[in-house]
Amino acid sequence: MLFNSLPFLIFLPTVFALYWFVFKKYLRVQNGFVIVASYVFYGWWDYRFLGLIIVSTLIDFCVGFELGRQKHEVKRRVLLLVSLVCNLGLLGFFKYYNFFVDTWVDAWHSLGVVMHPATLQIILPVGISFYTFQTLSYTIDIYRKELKPTKDLVAFAAYVSFFPQLVAGPIERARHLLPQFTEGRHFVFDFAKSGLHLILWGLFKKVVVADNCAFFVSLIFENPSGFSTLELLLGAVLFGFQIYGDFSGYSDMAIGMGRLFGFHLRTNFRFPYFSRNIAEFWRRWHVSLSTWFRDYVYIPLGGSRVSLYKQVRNVCIVFLVSGFWHGANWTFIVWGGIHALLFVPLLLFRNTKKYQESGFALRQLLPMIGTFLLVTLAWVFFRSNSIEAALIYLKTLFLFKAFDLDVFYNTPKYLLFSLISGFSILIMLCMEFRAFKRQRDALEFSFLGGLIIALLIMFLGVFKNPSDFIYFQF
Amino acid sequence: MKKFIGYILSFGVVFYLLLHIISVASFWTLRRSAFYKPPFLVNEVKVSDFDYIILGASTGLTTLNTHIIDSITGKQGINLAIDDTGLSNHYLMLQHFLANGKITRYCVLNTSLEAFDRQHNFLGDNDYRFLMYRDKDYVFNYYNSLAPKEGFNVLRYSKWTPFLGLSYYNTELFFPALSSVFYPHKRNRFDSLGNYTYSNVTGTPALKNKTEKEIRFKNPYLKKIETLCKQNNIELIYYFSPDKTRNVKCFSSSRNVINHTDVFKEVPYFYDAIHVVRKGNREASKLFANELIKLYLIEE
Fold first, then answer.
1. Catalytic-residue membership of A176
2. According to the model, what pLDDT value does residue A119 have?
3. Fewer Cβ atoms within 10 Å of its own Cβ: the N or the C terminal residue of chain B?
């Protein structure tokens, strides 16, 4: 079920009403209802994959329970290994099986050996990368003795399957979200109202900004060699805003819905396009994933307490793994690699912490634009279907051979979509810049502001042929 | 919780009212515009008595040019074809034409070959172009009687909640409504007699080995169009436009048929498989005009 679909428009108020008016009395019943609602939400897309969530939930609940009881270090390690193998095994099979087979075949082919192995028609279960990482963090934290295991299977299953953030995050740590399932929730007007505003704002970013950008972006990336430098630059920039609107819009809606049900979910995007260097960008972009990699990959590798050489190695590993997490394609790995290359100089010059606490000054506009352009160029790899396609895109872009915008002349509809995109991006940037300057994590708006946003959604949004959420594929 | 429900209700009511006002105003503007053919016919076409009208989809729109036909025949016609529509929409256009007090001697019907034998009709991609007349019975009945190929029938429910259609088709309706406020006579890619031609690019010739397409007139909307024509003393002419890959074989002797699927053999007049370039438009219109003259001669 998509957040911007008609079934969800009925689903959300129904679940909200039942949650607060019918099932409020008993916490376990309320949690049980969250599980049922979440399974309906997920099963709407494909009920067959509910089994995966249930298996993942049961395995990690049992492993966590045993880890809490077990004192013997070797047995604890075995238990952790069971969780890792099961979770990463499922993820690996569904997401990476064909990629590994194809890469293996290509590698032998380059040596002159032709192989014909069996590839499988595997459907990637929506959100598997998100809930797998969520359950993994639970067992790892228990193993590290940073978290006590829960004995409440219902609360744990509700934590794993909580529908607002089940399929595209934010990736919530058990130590943050699980206690909210074991304690009673109370309805707070201001908290719920801010949730509504976040839902509206997220919807605006998704259906107005992202989906309008998608038309032009799809056209340009389909055959980049047929377009001018200016058109390609516009395509890359609009993709930058498409993916931001799409993903941060989803996160905002998820956080907003969490608030409607009395849950506090962590901020996932903190206005990343106002970053003044790549390090700051990664403190603001997909925060729940980057902190996950920091805590479970970077720090175990030694983090920043090792030699500079090893720090560089660790950063490269994290970015490459992060790229690979996004999808089974070399384009994502190269995208991660580019970010590593952009990050390493900051590490070498000890500049990674710069701008951590500082407000905005006008002289920072240039580094801000520079960072945005670097991120935009890296997105070309992220969006392209293959490395070759990305290289053709960049090659044509940097040939500076033509600066026309004939595409708008030939197909005026793209001009309209791009004008709407430009207008909505401007609104988004203005609104978010105000919050960024005040060093806030989320937007706040009045009754009238909410009405204007809602009207803009209705009249500028894409409801006919909307695009899927990009991050669903991850 | 009471405060929250109060907040949502007050937000919802104000939002709904604003949406409704904007939607009604947008449709009011579109109804007075010339942007799409239905309001164009009502607002810009002063003639009421036509010799012929052309109903159809994109082939009808781009193959027959009423300026050329009129200059040859001395008759008066108008092209009411809308691209990306089916027979059901052509029936609706004929109803709209008659409902606005217009009459015609001949009705030329040209649509995609597949449409003739389609048993089940759905709402088409461009059926929203009648949405400004959603309060008219014939328009509402049309939206009510057909289902979209997939999803929710926004056109049907737009009668009571016009913002549904306006939001769903916002680039097709809301922005044209805005533009019509400033340019009420602006037309959406058709001339003063409803014609549109592809740019003057060099076309391609027809294939040497064309396939044969049998037409058995099975679409139930054909019967509806024929009945409506009969009731209004309109002579219905089926026109099969030049086709690059197929020739038509008709299974009907009782109908007026002009079959021009095979008229362009060697000449490079095709834009794609079913549409012609500007030169093709000119030649096809001349050929059609001669057929129309013959019909009038027979009558006289």
1. no
2. 62
3. C
Q: Rounded to a whole number, what is the distance in Å from the CA of B50 to chain A's nearest CA?
A: 33
Angle at alpha carbon of residue B271, lines to B89 and B206, rounded to 5°: 105
User: Which DSSP string corresponds to A292-325?
Assistant: HHIIIIITTTTTTSS-HHHHHHHHHHHHHHHHHH
Check: CATH 2.30.30 for B48-129+136-146+184-299? no
Nearest to B90 by CA among B48, B49, B51, B118: B118
- Per-residue pLDDT of B142-198, as tens digits, reads 999 999 888 889 999 999 999 999 999 999 999 999 999 999 999 998 999 999 987
Q: Give the residue from B17, B161, B170 with the most A CB atoms within 10 Å of its CB, the best one to mutate.
A: B170
- The sign of the torsion formed by the CA atoms of A166, A168, A172, A173 equals positive
Among residues A197, A286, A326, A339, which one is catalytic? Answer: A326
Q: How far is A199 from chain B (nearest CA, A)?
A: 13
* Partners of residue A461 in chain B, C-beta under 8 Å: 167, 170
* Domains of chain B by residue range: 48-129+136-146+184-299
Would the CB atoms of B168 and A187 count as touching at under 8 Å?
A: no
Q: Residue B89: left (phi > 0), alpha (psi -120 to 50), or beta? A: alpha
Chain B residues within an 8 Å CB radius of A459: 22, 166-167, 170, 174
Is there a contact between B246 and B113 (Cβ–Cβ < 8 Å)? yes
pTM of the complete model: 0.89
Q: A330-334, A469-473, B39-43: which has the minimum mean pLDDT?
A: A469-473
Q: Flag whether residue A460 sits within 8 Å of chain B, measured between CB atoms.
A: yes
